[in-house]
Amino acid sequence: MTWNRAHDRGQQRVAAALTRDHLPYWWVRWSYPNRWWEAYFTGPATVAPLRSTDPADLAKRMKSTLKELAKGHLR
């Protein structure tokens, strides 16, 4: 059986849920070739994309990044 994108629907749903939970500052996608979630900051600061194979870890890091931005530690 050949792999196709439909096989990762569960991961895609998780990415959509993470995006909804962290709007308006983050957009999350499932990187099916790499097998991890990627979070992209959509605010005015320059933030490197966050990546994780664990969605709970990614959510924690997104929240932490926002806290650091609010403190002025990241730009």
Percent range for β-strand residues: 15-25%
- The ordered string of helix (H) and strand (E) elements is HEEEH
Number of strands: 3
How would you classify the helix and strand content by structural class? Answer: alpha+beta
| Largest sheet properties | 3 strands, antiparallel
Give the strand line-up of the largest sheet: 1-2-3
What portion of residues is helical?
Answer: 40-55%
Anisotropy-based shape: elongated
Number of helices: 2
| Cα end-to-end separation | 46 Å
| Gyration radius from CA atoms, angstroms | 13 Å
Unreliable residue stretches: none
Question: Which SSEs are present, and which pair or pack?
Answer:
Layout: H1 9-21, E1 26-31, E2 36-41, E3 50-52, H2 55-71
Antiparallel strand pairs: 1-2, 2-3
Main traits of this protein?
single chain, 75 residues, alpha+beta, three-stranded antiparallel β-sheet, 40% helix, 20% strand, elongated
In short:
The protein is of the alpha+beta class.
Fold and architecture overview:
The protein is an alpha+beta fold and 75 residues long. The protein contains 2 helices and 3 strands, in the order αβββα. It has helices at 9-21, 55-71, and strands spanning 26-31, 36-41, 50-52. It has a 3-stranded antiparallel sheet. A hairpin with a 4-residue loop joins strand 1 (26-31) and strand 2. It is elongated and about 45 Å long. It starts with 8 loop residues before the first helix and ends with a helix. The model has no long low-confidence stretch (mean pLDDT 92).
